[in-house]
Amino acid sequence: MRTISQVAELTGISTRTLQYYDEIGLLKPSELTESGYRLYDDEALQKLQQILFFKELGFKLKEIKEILQKPDFDRIKAFKRQKELLLLKRNRTDRLIQLLSRLEKGVKSIPAGRSGTWGRSGTGPLYWWIGTQRNPYRPP
User: Fold this and answer.
1) What is the 3-state secondary structure (H, E, C) of 66-95?
2) How much is the average pLDDT of 12-24?
3) Higher pLDDT, residue 59 or 20
4) DSSP class of 122
5) Which has the closest alpha carbon to 67: 91, 77, 42?
6) Residue 48: its pLDDT value, please?
7) From CA 86, how far away is CA 140, in angstroms rounded?
8) CA dist 109 to 90, 96, 118, 130, Å?
9) Secondary element (H or E) of residue 128
10) 101 membership: H or E segment, kind and range
11) How far from chain centre, in Å, is Cα 97?
């Protein structure tokens, strides 16, 4: 069993965040001591790991809670899907970095027939490129 402070140190999230997760029913401590201290076992830490992966992928806490409460929730399948989504996120980030590298060199990346100006918000090559990308973290 680990105390809330130990879990916070291990994961890098604050004790207040863990308290909040408890308050909203997202992550309940495994035990409460007679003094009211929260204790977490390995199963709770695994659940926290799932929560943190979903948060990294942009899911809201309410959505995460709903997913984890489903009777057919499969932790291993979730890890596989999270891995796929993180790879998509990495690929998207890599493409943005490549685009920025080309733009630094002064190479325009707008395909033929597209135009835009740099002066107005929401126009130009980067905005055009972003506008053509599907958000890989949500179903189509």
Assistant:
1) HHHHCCCCCHHHHHHHHHHHHHHHHHHHHH
2) 95
3) 20
4) T
5) 77
6) 94
7) 17
8) 20, 12, 13, 12
9) helix 125-131
10) helix 75-104
11) 19
* DSSP line for 14-73: -HHHHHHHHHTTSS--SEE-TT--EEE-HHHHHHHHHHHHHHHTT--HHHHHHHHH-TT-
pLDDT of 29 reads 96
Tell me the C-alpha distance between 138 and 53, whole Å: 14
From 18, 24, 63, select the one nearest 45 (Cα to Cα). Answer: 18
What pLDDT was estimated at residue 107? Answer: 62
| pTM for the structure as a whole | 0.66
Q: Are 57 and 20 in contact (CB under 8 A)?
A: no
> Region 46-57: what's the mean pLDDT?
91
- Assess contact for 39 and 75: CB atoms under 8 A: no
Report the C-alpha gap between 14 and 16 in whole angstroms.
5
**Residues with Cβ within 8 Å of residue 10, at least 6 apart in sequence:** 2, 45
Q: Output the pLDDT for position 119.
A: 43
pLDDT digits (tens, 9 = 90+) for 72-117: 988 889 889 889 988 998 998 999 898 888 888 876 555 555 444 4
